[in-house]
Amino acid sequence: MDPYLLLGVPRDADDQSIRRAYLEGVKAASPETDPERFKAVSAAYESIKNETQRYSHELFHEDSPGNSPLDAFLQHARRSPRPAPLPLEALKELLRSCSKT
Amino acid sequence: MVDGHPNLPVSALPPSVIAAEKRARALLAEGKWRAARDEVKSLAKLDRSRFLPILVAANTGLFREFVQKGRAADARQVLSFLATVIPADQVRALEAEMTAAAHPAPGASLDSLAASQGSLPPAELVRLADRVVIAFEPVPVGNPPLAGLAAELAVIHDGLAQVSAARWDGLADRLRAVPRRSPFSHWAVFIKGLAAFYTGDNDRAIQCFENLPAGSVPAKAGQGYLVLAGRLEPDPLSPPGAASLGVAGRVLGRPSAGQQLCRAEQLWRADRHVDSYRVWRDGVSLFPSDGPDWLGALSEFYFQATRSLNEEQSDDYLCHFMDLLRRAGKNDVEDLLGHRMLGLQAVREGAWSIAAEEWDKFLTIRAKVRKPNPKLEAVAYCWLGQQMVVPRPGQNPVRLGGLPAMQAPARGRSYFQKAVALDPNLLPASLWLCHVYASLGQNRERNQLLDEMTRRFPDEKPVLLLAADRCIGSKAFTKAIALVERARELDRLDPTIPAMMVLCWRQHAWQQFQQQQPDKARTTLAATAEFLTDKPDDFHLGRWTNTARHGLQEELHGDPAAGRSLLAQARSASPFPGAFLLFAQIAYRYYAKRRSKESPFLGELRTELKTGASAVRAAQLLRQMQFWSDSADAPEVSSEYQLVRGYVAAAAKLPCAREEARIVVELCLSSGSEGQARLFTKAALRRDRDDPLFGFFDHSLRTAWEASSPRHRAELEKLLGLAQDRRDQEAIQKIQHALRALNAPPPTPAYSEPEQDQDEDWDDGPEIPSGVLPPMPPGMEAGIGQLMEALRDASPEEVEDLRRTAPKDVPPFILNMFIQAARAAPPRPNRRRPPGPPSGQQEFF
C-alpha cells in the first residue's frame, strides 16, 4: 500500500506534515480499535518518515497496491481517508440512478 | 404441463425447453425484460405452473421500465396482461407506482402512499416510498390527513441535506421523528449509515447499510458505501456487483469509474493486461497519476504489476511500455513510472546496461519535471550499485548467502563512486564503496576512502569499526583500540564491540611481547579482564582460554616460569584436560608460527584423547575445532581434526543422553564428520529405533543427494508423523524445514550480463601455468573456486543446506571431499570479520 495514499499526504510533504498525518492516523485507528489499519499506518510512516527514506521509497519500492485493478481500488478505498460527502445535487443524482438499476 | 402431463420433473422436459428456460432466467438476471418475456411466453403454454412466475417477473420488469421511461400507454398494456395472471392487490400496487410516476408532486405521491399503506405488501410500499423521496419535490403543507407523512418526508430530505453539508450535530435526534412503522424508516437508517460512514464509524455504517430492505433505493446505494467500507467484495462480472461499483464510483465523485473499473478488471482477468491499462489511459485524462487518491493507487498497480505476471506475460507487458515510452508517454507520470518499472525489471534480470539506461532516463526526466536533486540521485546510484554487488540468490554454485560473490563489482564501484560524489554525506554509499574496494583488492583506494570517512563521519559506529579493522590489519593497535572505544561509547549494547576490543588488546599485547616489552604487554592484557566470561565454550572471551593464551605468550617471549604457571591455571580452569591440551596445541602453533604440526602439548594430547571419551567432551572438542576453523590467522588444523574425530568415534561406543548425542551429531554434520555423526545416530537408534530426530539424521545421512525423490519425501512424511505422535518439537521443525525445502522450486540462475570493464586494475590471483591441468569448461574453474571459498566460510546450517540442495549428479564423496578440503585449507590472510560489508538495503534505507 502506498504510504502517501495511506497517510493522505502529498508526494512533496515534509517530515513534519508526514508526522502530523501519522499521528492523526494512529489516533483514528488505535491498536485496540483497528489493529490492521494501525499497523499499516505505522509501516507507512516508517517508510517515508525522513528524506532519504522518501527518496528510497520513490525510487525502488515494489509493493503493489493489489492483485488486480479492482483489488487495488478496494484496498485503497479501505485504507485511505473517507472522501468528502457528495454535494446534495450529486447525492440526489446518485439516489435517482439507484432507482433505475 | 407438457403434452397434458402436469408438473413433470425437469428430466422429463425436452432439452430445448430446459435450454430456453435457462436463457430466460439469464435474461431476467441481466434486466433484459422484453427478451426474457419473449423467451418464456411459449414455455408458459407448455407448463403454466412452472413458467408463469418467470413470465410475471419479465412483464413486471418491463412494466416498470416503461413507467420509468414515461411510456404510460405501453405500461398500461403490460399491466392489463398482468391483471389476468396476478392477484388484484399486486395490480393495485403497480397502478399506484404508475400514478406516482405520472404525478411526481409529493402531494399526489403521498396520497398514493397513504392510500396504499394498509393494502400493499411491504416491498411495494418501500418502492412507493422511495419514489416519493427521490422526487425531491417541496413537501405540501396544510393537508391534515397527510401531515404526518409529510413531516417524516421533510425530515428525510433535511437529513440528506445535512449529510451533504457534513453537519452531523443533532442529525440523529432529528431522525427520531421518523418512527419505525413509517414507510420512510429505511431512509432514516440509510442517513444514519451515511453519517457513520463519513465520521469514520465503519462498524455502525456497515450495520446500517446491511439492514436496509432488499431492492430499495437506500439498499442499492448502501451497496456502494459497503464497497468503500470494505464490507463488500463486488463481482464485477455480475450486474449487482457492477452496480455496486458504479455507486462506489459516484460516491468518489467519478460516475464513470465503476463501469471503467468493471471493464478493466474483466480484461485483467482475461490476461489482456495491456488492454486493461488502456481502459484508463484512454478513458481518464488524469491517468496515470501519482496523486494520493484511488487513481494514484490504480496507476501504482499497473506500474508494479510485472511481478504478479508470468515471464511471458511480463515480457509482453513491458514491451508495450517500452513501445509507449519510445513514442513519448501520455504524461510525465507515465514517463517516470514507466522508466522506473523498466529499470527495476532490468535490475531483477541482471541486465545492467538496460538498467543503467532506464535509471538515467528516469533521473533525467525527474530532474526536468521537478528539479535536480543530487541527494535523490545519490540514493539511486547507491542502490543500483548495491544491486550489482550483492550475490544473486541461486546464482552461485552453492546457495550460501552473504558471500562475496559479487555480480558486477566494477559497475557497482562506479555507481558507488557517483553516489559519493553526488552526496558525500550518504553513509551507505561510502560503506559499500569501501567494501567493494576491499573485495577488489584496491587497498590504497580503500584506505584513502576510510580516512575521508573517519573525518566525515566521526560518530558513526560502522565507520569506526571499519577503520579499526584496517588498523588491526596494519598492526596499528593503539589507534585501533581508540577507534573501538569510541564505537563502544556510541553503542554499549553491541556485543561485537567488546569482542573486537579484546582482539585489539590481545594482538597488541602479543606485539609488545614480541618487542620485548612484557610489562606493557601484561598491562594491555589486563584490560581484557572486563570483558571476559566464564563460559567454557567461548574460546574468544572465555577466561580459561585467555589465561592459556597469556601463558603461551609469556612462555614464548616473556617470563617462561610465569607462563607455565598460567598454563597450569588454565588447565585446571578448563572443562577437562583434553580441551586444554587441544587449545594449547593449536594456540602454541599460532603464536610460535611453526609450520610443524607439533608442539610441547601434542604428545600429551594424543594420550589424553585415547581415554575417558564422552559425548559431552566430544561436543566441547568439536566446538573448539569449529572455533579454530573460523578464526582469523589460525593454523591449518587437519591433524588435530583427525585426533578429535577418533575421540568422537570412541565416545559413540559409550552410552550417553539423547540430548548429548543430538548435539554431537549436529556438530559432526556441520564440520563434515559424517562418519562420526553416523556412529552416534546408529547408537541412538539402537536405543530407540523409532526416535524421529535420529531417524531424520539417519535419513539425511543416507539420502543427502536424493532430495527430490518420492521415496525421500515419503520417508520424511513418515518421520514427521512419528515426531508429531511424540510431540517432538525439534524433530518436527527439522523435518518440516526439510519438506519445505523439497517443495521449494530449485533456484533458477537468472541471466546476468557480463561486466564489460576494460580498466580493471585488481589482481585476479596467481596464474596457473598452462598444460599442468586439462582445460576446464568455461566458468567451471571459477565455480570450483567459489565453491571452495563458500565452503570455507560456510556456517553449519549452510553446509547442511548445501548437502540437501546439491545436484543429483554430484556424488556424495565429491562434496565430502570439497568440504573436508575447504575446512582443512590454510586460512586466507586477514580473515577478520568485524564490521563487514553493509548488510543490506533495509539497514541503510
Description:
The complex is a heterodimer of chains A (101) and B (845). Chain A is an all-alpha fold and 101 residues long. Chain A has one domain: DnaJ domain (Helix Hairpins, Orthogonal Bundle). Chain A is 66% helix and 0% strand. Chain A is elongated and about 50 Å long. Chain A starts with a helix and ends with a helix. The model of chain A has no long low-confidence stretch (mean pLDDT 88). Chain B has 845 residues and is mainly alpha-helical. Chain B has 42 helices and no strands. Chain B is elongated, with a radius of gyration of 41 Å. Chains A and B meet through helix 4, helix 5 and helix 6 of A and helix 7, helix 8, helix 10, helix 12 and helix 13 of B.
Number of discrete helical segments of chain B: 42
* Distinct helical segment count of chain A: 6
| Oligomeric state, counting identical vs distinct chains | heterodimer
State the major sheet of chain B.
none
Net shape of chain A:
elongated
Q: Structural class, judged by helices and strands of chain B?
A: mainly alpha
Task: Report the uncertain regions of chain A.
Answer: none
The portion of residues assigned to helices of chain A is: 55-70%
What's the total count of β strands of chain A? Answer: 0
Would you tell me the overall average pLDDT of chain A? Answer: 88
Rounded to an integer, what's the Rg of chain B over CA atoms?
41 Å
Distance between the termini of chain B: 76 Å
Give the name of the CATH architecture of chain A.
Orthogonal Bundle
Strand content of chain B: under 5%
The Cα radius of gyration of chain A reads 16 Å
Low-confidence stretches of chain B: 1-7, 394-404, 746-754, 756-782, 826-837, 839-845
What's the level 1 CATH class of chain A? Mainly Alpha
Element pattern of chain A in H and E: HHHHHH
- Count every beta strand of chain B, where a strand is a DSSP E run of 2 or more residues: 0
